Amino acid sequence: MAISPISPESAPPPYPHRHLLGIEGLSPDDISQLLDLSEEYAEQSRGRGRKLSTLSGCTCINLFFENSTRTRTSFELAGKRLGADVINISVGSSSIKKGETLIDTAMTLNAMHADVLAVRHPDAGAVKLLSEKVNCAVINAGDGSHEHPTQALLDALTIRRRRGHLRDLQVALCGDIAHSRVARSNIYLLQTMGARVRVVAPPTLLPPELERLGVEVFHDMRRGLADCDIVMMLRLQRERMQGTFVPSIREYFRFFGLDYEKLQFAKPDALIMHPGPMNRGVEIDSQVADDIDRSLIHEQVEMGVAVRMACLDLLAHGVREAGAL
């Protein structure tokens, strides 16, 4: 049975941004507002009445130029749980694939009168360009190697629910930093919220602009994991690599894959994360990934729905309020 829409008295305060294109530039208050509402949705989703009518009458479109079962499905589920009309556009069979430009796509989407558009695109900056041409709110669901803001938010929510806070935690991001939009968004968010961030990777998998982000850099897992509270492994994104970045998968796992031998250098209660999809035996050992006491990987997936519900809620209400002015 659908739950009634949020009343004006209990509705979340207006979000100060029309779009969610990245974490960079968000204030601690902006991030906390998203996390706090996500926390409410996480608890609500675990209850019996999961179907809401908060966004009844709203249209949410998922436009994915890259395949992503996990992210697209969670956006779809988030919209449906809020009572929105959800449309998934398959780029592989659409006019976009046949040569339609991004500007033409924007004109088509404007004609649909959508409220929120979630976009994943292989090129950095493409989502921002689209946001400048459409009348609705836009959520960046990942653009090239630039940012993936909702992933960083769900990672932060997962950590906060287990640790109670983010401030002063020591977080290690390990693996393919150079090609990871997840790493970039997490660095921005964690540092904004007072956590200390270090990256652990071979020199070939580090981006040249890393120094300006203010993180500690390590090329040895044992030194890099020392005294860490959170160990976040990142996928080796071979589809984005042009050239040889690692000698072999076997060698990569030997030096940079997470197993219990390397994990012992972190704090005894250090928690393990991975944004998925995992390459078992490449970035992480299966026993470590499935450790029921220390792995948060399955909880990350669950929190993804709650975070995307919060983002859709706040941005859709912003669009409606702007239209009512």
Description:
It contains 11 helices and 9 strands. The protein has 325 residues and is α/β, with parallel strands linked by helices. It has a 5-stranded parallel β-sheet. A 4-stranded parallel β-sheet has the order 2-1-3-4. Helix 1 (28-45) crosses helix 5, helix 2 (69-81) crosses helix 11 and helix 5 packs across helix 11. The chain is globular and about 55 Å long. Residues 1-9 have low confidence and may be disordered.
Keywords:
single chain; 325 residues; alpha/beta; four-stranded parallel β-sheet; 11 helices; 9 strands; 38% helix; globular; disordered N terminus
pLDDT averaged residue by residue: 89
With strands numbered from the N-terminus, the spatial order across the biggest sheet is: 7-6-5-8-9
Terminal Cα span: 33 Å
* Helix count from the secondary structure assignment: 11
Shape summary: globular
Short description:
Helix content is 38%, strand content 14%.
Topology:
Layout: H1 28-45, E1 59-64, H2 69-81, E2 85-90, H3 102-112, E3 116-121, H4 126-131, E4 137-143, H5 149-163, E5 170-174, H6 181-192, E6 196-200, E7 216-218, H7 221-224, E8 230-233, H8 249-256, H9 260-263, E9 271-273, H10 286-289, H11 297-324
Helix pairs in contact: 1-5, 1-11, 2-11, 5-6, 5-11
